[in-house]
Amino acid sequence: MAAFANVLQSDLTAAKESIEIFMELLEGDAAAVYLHLSDAKLSTPFDPSQRRYHLLVQLAHILEERSIYTGNSSDLQLALQYGQAAFRMCIAEGVACPTVLTLYAAILNTNADNSAHSEDRTTAESLVRAAIRLCEWDHPLRPVTHLVLGWIVLRRFEATGDRPFIEEAVHLEQLALTQMPSLEDQMRHRHLRRLGWFLFRRYESSCDSRDLDEAISNFEEAAKLCPSAHIDRGRIEGYRLIGLYRRCYNSGDLQDIESALEIGRRSLEPVGPDGHPRIGILETVANLLTLRHQRTLSNGEDIQESIQLRREALRRSSVGSINHWIFLHNLTFDLQLRFSWSGELIDLEEAIQLARQAANVLSDDHPERFRPARVLAQVLTLRFKEEGNIADLDEALEWDRRALTAVPHTHGVENSTTSVLLISHLCLRFESLRSEHDLTEAISLSEELLRILPTDHIHRPDILSYLSKGLLLRGQHRDDLADINRAIAELQPVAIISDQVDQPEEPERLRNLAILHLTRFRRMRNPDDAMRAASISSRLLASVTPGRRERHQCLLDASEIYMEPETPCYDVPRALTCLLEALTDPQRDVRSRIHGVKRVLDLIHPHYADITSTGTSTNLQLLDIYIEGVRLLPRVAFFGLHLQSRLQSLAVGQSIALTGASHPLKISLPERALEILEQGRVTFWRHVLRLRSPFDDVPAELRGELSTLARQLEKVSDMGLAQDALVVEAEATRRKRLSREFECLLERVRDVPGLERFLLHDEFATLAKASERGPVVVLVASSLACHAVVLNASGEVTMIALDGVTEAWVVESSASWQSAMTAARSQLRDRLHIDKKTNPLKARCARIEAVLHRLWTDVVRPVVRILGLEMSVGRNRPRVWWCPTGHFLHLPIHAAGGVDGVWCSDYVVSSYTPTLGALLAARSAYTPVKKRNIKALVAAVSESTMSHWNDLASVREEASAVVRYLPAGSVLATSPDHIFRRAEGGVTAEALLFRLPDATILHLACHGHQDPDSPLKSGFVMQDEVLTIERLMLVSLPRAFMAFLSACETAKGDKSQPDQTVHLAATMLFAGFKSVIATLWSMEDVDGPMIANSVYKDMFDSDAECIDPDDVPYALDAAVQELRRAHPEPSRWATYVHFGI
């Protein structure tokens, strides 16, 4: 059989001929056999009288070898059939043939590798051990039996982690090499390759570098012995590259990496059965490119090439193959690295999808299942850092724990690697949730690892780094100096010894050391600590060059250090320079930039007066930072799967617009302040509206594509209901790609002359036009100051410092006001039974009066005086539009007064607008509304099928009052009686949505609800369900003029994100209504008919052909004045407000 073995070693053609010969022998065609032998010119004579079971098992062996080389599973199945036939024939003939036992065992072991049939491996082991017992010490088959058994026990080691298995595997292969006769030297390279691999696997368990060096030496000797055309050549080169990669990984020596890459690139020459490089070679060269990228942080060419190789390997891998998960895992890792380098979210989303696929492929008992679990935890953590969704971090920690549980207990390197990741993620969650349990676990795990790992272990510096991080966090949390001192003592030797900031992990260690010294300075006031922090930070900035993602955090830390008062390194201009560079760093995502800069700005605010007193240049530097921060805010509003996720994404920077506006107001630049407010507020609605833009001014070659993308992005997905995370993330990735395309297309449109500001915020010259029909007053409250900015009819802007109020008072008063209104609502039905002299009622009334009095004295009266207004009545009073921001939004500015019987309404008729741009847009879209063309949708819901809503007894009366004044034939039918189904108590949500686009006027008399937890779930209570903002905002309203929202809380707004103005009144305004009547808190059911009757009477009593937009606010004001005279308590009348033109 040696002749056929020689033929097999040459190439696949020889293997094919060998298979044909064996098949002919089995069929008894001797003539054909001798013809083959003659053509093959075999030098070794062939004895055709072999036993049939020998022929069968040799045929099976060749098929198995070919299947390993080509990946053809049908060859392996045939090998199993022929091998089993040979084995059974031996049993039937009572023959114990070591050749059959050994080669059949090898086939069963290969099948176990490819199908996870563990019982095949058990059988294989028993067969080959039996073969060894049959062979004498000098039997020529004995080296082969040791080789086969060695591979079997290696797999046992990989499955269990039990060290005796790997020791036996190494010993068996060493024996095989000593037992090989000289005439078998042509097989020696195969044994050397196997021994090298066994040593490498032992190195991974023991971390003994001698095993790694010996493994590489064996691979190199095997390469010298193996002919270049041999089918084993590719495997040898692949294993050699893996060993070299590990050595390069440990040493970080660039010369080693370059040498290994040179070998790898030569190995990429086609050596596979299909004329392509072997998949294993592709993967290892990709590993080396990835490593060089990590060590040098090049221009990205290495990671790009690596990903191309990974994709090629994945493409050539069969989806159902046992190793498919490896290619998914490796591509995930590289996409994660490219994301860290470039910040492209598309890479991160794809990485998460691939990691989930890899994790789902492996069974719970797979020995390598920890790898995909670990990388999935890493990419989920990265997404948490980008998007701030704590669910991602929670899930990442779950996968961390799964990975740690799955690592074989003897797998030292992998165990410590996985533990380090778990520790880092626990520290990260503590920084978000402040749960000391996470810190305790992180510190305990770090200490346990340090106790058991040798002092020269590769991961010991990382563990010390995270131990110090945990101690730092705990020290800050507990204000415990002992933890800070210990953290410095643990970290300083590691940071000083490494001192290689060109390595990706080193800047983090040095950053932590600088933060530790700064933290200790703040506690002990020792200037040496401050100088040490500044020295480390300066060195980092010099070494971590622009283009590296670590530089962003280094800049933020430096800014914080240079901003520290009472230190020798205090340098405000330098701190602001670092801060602006961090904010404009293109290597970091927008959210991270805003979040990091906000952290430093929060440190600036307590020292604002000292900082801004240093000179004009410093003030302008700080202004540039605020302008850049606010410029980034719209980019945070990601077009996600759900409206709620888009809204939540804006929370990170919600205070920047207000403080950013206060700063230019403090330095007398009110025009710039208005631009900042316009750009940084109501971002959620601007994103919604930009998708509905007609794009009429866009060139035709861009208009179609822009419109298509806008329509796709406007669609709201219900993917959140899906249970399959892969499906959800695939859709999220698609939408992110569309969002990026949409933004890129907008940039192209802005390159067109005349469209430079297409879909951007308005500049002051445009904003000033908002006051053409009356003064607009913008109210700003921030931690820096409180101001009123007045735009008069001429477009001039006046700034008023509201020194009588602070942001703290505004916040406290808005909370107090809401509490008082809630208390008034709870007593609504018991009004006649309330003892008006009781202390709770007196206290509530006192709070209400105090808020309204101070609003008048310190906010509204200064505005009235600047405008030069006098007390008057009716239409002799001018209109004023209030544009409150921040927590001013929760206060009834229009109801200010009560001091000496004087009220805001004695001077002006108030309206509100979310932004100046919203008022301009409503006016621009307005066309005169002829009364005879009105289409009114009047909907009253007296009863709802949802049991927790009380019946409303007065809505029928209210609806009838409205219809009484509307022109004949103007009411749109939503049900048989046009208003409500008397049998069911109201209009359904679908019926209302169906007719809403046809409506000029909408009058809703029903329950309203502002959801405090999910503002987009706020809505109107219809007969069958709540009609939410999420559904209403998707409706196109081309005819809309006025919406009268006679329901509770329709302009209440969201307490956590007030400047996004997510409430029902804003929804109607942004959806297309030009004029909206709403309520700031609950209203009384019995007041609805009176207010509606008064408003519609004033609007429609005149003979004017068209409705004057001014009629709406003046009519509402008259109705409210009448209600106030009848019921003077503000909780009753002050709830009614007007929005719009």
TrEMBL record:
Start and end residues of each CHAT domain: 850-1140
Segments spanning the bilayer are none
Give the matching InterPro entries: CHAT_dom, TPR-like_helical_dom_sf
Q: Which Pfam families match?
A: CHAT
Q: What is this protein called?
A: CHAT domain-containing protein
